[in-house]
Predict the 3D structure of the following.
Amino acid sequence: DAKTTQPNSMESNEEEPVHLPCNHSTISGTDYIHWYRQLPSQGPEYVIHGLTSNVNNRMASLAIAEDRKSSTLILHRATLRDAAVYYCTISGGGADGLTFGKGTHLIIQP
Amino acid sequence: DTGVSQDPRHKITKRGQNVTFRCDPISEHNRLYWYRQTLGQGPEFLTYFQNEAQLEKSRLLSDRFSAERPKGSFSTLEIQRTEQGDSAMYLCASSLDWRDTEAFFGQGTRLTVV
């Protein structure tokens, strides 16, 4: 499985954009990039995924580097409810056998 | 449908006892996954099913761990002869099929072995 590297924690202010980076230098050509988040006392929650092109959905945007060795999850306007651990993970497709690292603990200041 | 349901939410057991956890996936979801999560770590993949077929079990932590999905609906995860190191959150997730990139997770079963 491709390994991912994320900062342990990040802090942002409410109503400001947040950019969460992820490095995945060993990603293969057919691997998808997935992002999940985990709120306290909850199971992980799907956020977004992508292959090569940047992606947008109601929760966030995913910016993928041209060489695909890194990606950035963008929360356009953080709220207190976005405080969670964010995981970047790589898979060959589908949700099979997702490998989660320690993730980034996002702290939102009011 | 209220999502992936896990039972019990909490389990305290004495070392050496067997425990069984149940997971009810979202209706019509063919894929079902089990993960373990220890404090401060991300979820660790254990095993998964396509309907009743267990497609991957080499990552189960030891031969004390086993999982079933007998009718392709709910699944059980059993740990025999529990050890203190088994204390963790056990998470279940489901997805529609092999092409579906979104896995829906339950709230987990927290196991404490004393």
